[in-house]
Amino acid sequence: MRRRVCCTDPVRLIAAGELARDTTPLLQPTVIDLLRRHRPWHIDVDLAGVTFLDAAVIRALLTCRADAHQLDCRLTLSNPSTSHPPDRARRGSPANIRRD
């Protein structure tokens, strides 16, 4: 994940590729690090580059939202794909999560 911190802009996390159970360990520590170091008022998770997302990631995102809420920070999702998920046998490369 890449990070962009500004006093008026939300912190933006950009996710790309496949997000599944094996990538969830990256998500919550990144959000917690942002909350501790920068105390943002808003974190936006940009899903435009995500090609697959499973239930484990949804649970992780809900946990991140609860973590953010405890510090009066809003966590939102933006740019979700509206296309149908690819067949699991044809899925592409693993996920990349970076801070913007």
Q: Can you give a write-up of this model?
A:
The protein has one domain (11-99): STAS domain (Transcription Regulator spoIIAA, 2-Layer Sandwich), CATH 3.30.750.24. 29% of the residues are buried. The protein has helices spanning 24-38, 55-70; strands spanning 11-19, 42-53, 74-78, 96-99. With 100 residues, it is of the alpha/beta class. The chain contains two helices and four strands, in the order E-H-E-H-E-E. The protein is globular, with a radius of gyration of 13 Å. The mean pLDDT is 84. A four-stranded mixed sheet has the order 3-2-1-4, with helices on one face.
Summary?
With 100 residues, the chain is α/β, with parallel strands linked by helices. 31% of the residues lie in helices and 30% in strands.
Notable traits:
single chain, 100 residues, alpha/beta, Transcription Regulator spoIIAA, four-stranded mixed β-sheet, 31% helix
Residue windows where pLDDT falls under 50 for at least 5 positions = none
What is the number of helical segments per DSSP (H or I, 4+ residues)?
A: 2
The count of DSSP E runs of length 2 or more, i.e. the number of strands, is: 4
Task: Estimate the global geometry from the Cα principal axes.
Answer: globular
Q: What is the correct CATH architecture?
A: 2-Layer Sandwich
- Could you describe the largest sheet, including whether it forms a barrel? 4 strands, mixed
**Which radius of gyration do the C-alpha atoms yield?**
13 Å
In the CATH scheme, what's the topology name?
Transcription Regulator spoIIAA
Structural class determined from secondary elements: alpha/beta
CATH superfamily: STAS domain
How would you state the average pLDDT, rounded? 84
Kindly report the spatial arrangement of strands forming the biggest sheet.
3-2-1-4
So what's the CATH class?
A: Alpha Beta
Measure the end-to-end span: 7 Å
Helix content: 25-40%
List the domain count as a whole number.
Answer: 1
The fraction of residues assigned to DSSP E strands is: 25-35%
- Succession of helices and strands: EHEHEE
